Amino acid sequence: MTGPAGVPAGGASDGPGEADWAAAVAAIRGLPADGRVLLICHVNPDGDALGSMLGFALGLRRLGVRRLQATFPGPPEVPEPFRGMPGLDLLVSEADADPEPDLVVCFDAAGASRLGGLADRLTGPGPALVLDHHASNTGFGDVNLVDPAAAATSVVAEELLARLGVPLDAGIAECLYVALTTDTGSFRFEATTPAVHLMAARLLATGIRPGDISRRIFDSRPFGAVRLFGEVLGRARLEPAAAAGHGLVWTYATQDDLARHEQRPYVLEALIDSVRCTAEADVSCVVKQTGAAEWAVSMRSKGAVDVSRVAVALGGGGHRFAAGFTGRGTAEDVVNSIRAVLPGALIGDGTS
Ligand code: AMP
Ligand code: MN
Ligand code: MN
Asked: Which listed CATH number (3.40.50.460, 1.20.1270.10, 3.30.1330.90, 3.10.310.30) goes with 224-345?
């Protein structure tokens, strides 16, 4: 696809072009009176997925759009840390999601497969608008606002709201702040640019309370989860020779571990942060059981390895330094598959 004067319009590598922004604004402004909008974020939603979706939904509501639903595929359970977020009243289960909306808007999903059973909404009567920041985004929407330079999908959402003339209020800002802090590791990761801090300043200026929000989202978990983390971290393994000597640290958690400690699967999302701090390893990995022989795999890198290449090679995706995939077999099988692919994912070896 090309834009005016043959300029590539919004190729994923260079972010959205003016033509893409204009098409997105037109899709929303062109909604019929009483038009129905379905917002969808990726399966197993994180703070960026939920925050960008709900923040944008609240913005559409301010714009006067009344028939709004927000949803994600899979069990409709919202992880406990997100249960105080504004806009949750708009959330419906996958089963209750409008089968034929006038407009679909997708958040933080690099490909249609991340939308699970809701992917069929992409081919419905209304156009599909995609807001995302994964370099690997497949461009699966009719209009794609994909900016790999954006620290979070909420950066794209804020820009689109601004172009629609929607002012930030505290509700929108809290959602976008949850998203921004999630994907920047609370302003610690490389993605934390001056633009990120300027956006954070705009959000904070609405009066939201960052201390309360961060405590709720990042620094609060049941005591059972604290004990579960202790057990799972106790079995972590360090492999200094892996990844051509850059080192690998990994651990796994089974469904039985969760049951013993009476914990829900989402508590394991925070585990990677306790594993990736291992100084002796560039690559960290947590393998989380989701079925008899199925595992959700989280990987992080400190800079020597492009873990998105590891993930893509194994059927998943993500960013250079944070990626994931679905693994099969035993936890050992999954780690074996990662170990085998790691040497081909070194950064600066001429192939990256
Ligand atoms: P996580 O470790 O779950 O926080 O995910 C890190 C990054 O990898 C995020 O950008 C996800 O979108 C991406 N990711 C995780 N799991 C998958 C998967 N199964 N398929 C594609 N991308 C994934
Ligand atoms: Mn995400
Ligand atoms: Mn994201």
From this structure: 3.10.310.30
Q: From the CA of 150, which ligand is nearest?
A: 3
pLDDT along the chain (352 residues), means of 10: 36 83 98 97 97 99 98 96 97 98 98 97 96 96 98 98 98 99 96 97 98 97 98 98 98 98 96 98 98 98 97 96 97 98 88 51
Contact 74, 145 (CB under 8 A): no
Domain ranges (residues) in the chain? 18-218, 224-345
Q: Which amino acid, one-letter code, is at 169?
A: D
The encoded tokens of residue 109 equal 């999903």
DSSP state of 77: P
What gap in Å lies between CA 306 and CA 326, rounded to an integer? 18
- State which residues have CB under 5 angstroms from ligand 2, the bound ion: 46, 48-49, 108
Counting ligands in written order, the one closest to the CA of 151 is 3
Q: Write the Ramachandran bin of 110: left for phi over 0, alpha for psi from -120 to 50, otherwise beta.
A: alpha
Q: Which residues line ligand 1 (CB under 6 A)?
A: 46, 110, 272, 298, 316-319, 322-326
* Centroid of chain to Cα 35: 27
Ranges of beta strands (E only) in 243-321 are 248-253, 283-291, 294-301, 317-319
Q: Would you say the pTM of this structure is higher than 0.85?
A: yes
Atom of ligand 1 nearest to the CA of 326: 19
**Smallest CA separation from ligand 1 atom 1, residue:** 298
